[in-house]
């Protein structure tokens, strides 16, 4: 009888932790009890593994590029990028591989935050400093891993405020408007962004139209497909405000609306990322993609590498949080802001 996927994952985890403990015995590195506590310094070549969920998405492609660029600036640092897709078992397996190869540091964007305790235990057992990139993770006792990324609530608030500004300029009212909110509902970052979007819009506009919340896997295709079903269930809506957890959700929603003959004039889409919303601006196409919050994956990748190398070479404690900056862009300023349109 073959083991269930859950039992297989647990068995893999047991081997992973055991392998981490063996690696720690032979590494000769001095560490504290928690992830990132290593104080001994290391000269010579460094290898940092960057494990990313959905590594084919443009944001994560940019993040990997930023990590490699920073490694080049720091010198004698190599970056090993691993695409985890959306597979938590693959993430556990990849951690086992990197532990076995005794990499010097790990940055990880987990496919599912629930594997946080396993990931942290593996890094601690192997005495390898680790940072959580983009999505926060915590140990089994609730202690957060060092984090590099964005403030999700503030990001959402900025998107909501921009949507409210455009909504007021258009003269729309809650009576003939609905908000389409697309996001991966089990992901805490997405939950926080959605909360911020609603709060920012309410503050900016004074009231919030009915919100249609749609669960997606954070991909363009799923957002587009789910939006088509929403339109069937919500006939007669004149105006749509669209936002999401990322650019994939927002642009997927806007595309579906336009495919169902909703005029771009009746859509206010505010993306989160700008790397996909910019496509229509670059092409000069009239679109419901009116603005976006520019989040630069390159800066996150660079920051993750920088804090890890600072610890490895200089003995600096990993900061609890390293927060990257953001900016609202639209068709008039996306290029000058540095958005790289995918």
From TrEMBL:
It is found in: Cell envelope. Residues 48-316 form the Periplasmic binding protein domain. Pfam families: Peripla_BP_4. One of its GO terms (biological process) is L-arabinose transmembrane transport. Transmembrane segments: none annotated. SUPFAM superfamilies: Periplasmic binding protein-like I. Keywords: Signal. Belongs to the bacterial solute-binding protein 2 family. This is Sugar ABC transporter substrate-binding protein.
């Amino acid at each position: 009888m073959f083991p269930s996927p859950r039992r297989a994952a647990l068995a893999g985890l047991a081997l992973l932790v055991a392998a981490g403990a063996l690696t720690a015995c032979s590494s000769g590195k001095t560490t504290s009890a928690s992830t990132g506590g290593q104080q001994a310094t290391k000269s010579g070549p460094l290898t940092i593994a960057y494990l990313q969920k959905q590594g084919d998405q443009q944001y994560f492609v940019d993040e990997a590029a930023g990590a490699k660029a920073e490694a080049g600036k720091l010198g004698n640092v190599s970056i090993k990028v691993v695409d985890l897709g959306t597979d938590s078992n693959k993430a556990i397996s990849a951690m086992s591989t990197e532990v076995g190869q005794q990499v010097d540091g790990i940055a990880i964007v987990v496919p599912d935050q629930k594997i946080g305790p396993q990931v942290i235990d593996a890094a601690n057992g192997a005495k390898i400093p680790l940072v959580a990139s983009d999505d926060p993770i915590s140990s089994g006792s609730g202690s957060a891993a060092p984090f590099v990324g964005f403030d999700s609530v503030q990001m959402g608030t900025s998107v909501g405020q921009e949507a409210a500004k455009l909504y007021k300029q258009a003269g729309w009212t809650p009576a003939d408007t609905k908000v389409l909110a697309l996001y991966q509902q089990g992901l805490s970052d997405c939950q926080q962004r959605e909360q911020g979007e609603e709060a920012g819009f309410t503050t900016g506009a004074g009231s919030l139209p009915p919100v249609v919340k749609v669960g997606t896997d954070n991909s363009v295709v799923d957002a587009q497909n789910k939006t088509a079903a929403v339109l069937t269930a919500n006939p007669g809506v004149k105006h749509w405000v669209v936002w999401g957890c990322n650019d994939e959700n927002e642009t997927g929603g806007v595309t579906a609306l336009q495919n169902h003959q909703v005029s771009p004039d009746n859509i206010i889409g505010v993306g989160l990322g700008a790397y996909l919303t910019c496509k229509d601006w670059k092409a000069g196409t009239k679109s419901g993609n009116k603005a976006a919050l520019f989040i630069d994956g390159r800066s996150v990748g660079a920051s993750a590498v920088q804090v890890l190398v600072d610890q490895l070479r200089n003995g600096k404690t990993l900061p609890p949080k390293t927060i990257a900056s953001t900016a609202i862009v639209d068709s008039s300023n996306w290029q000058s802001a540095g958005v790289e349109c995918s």
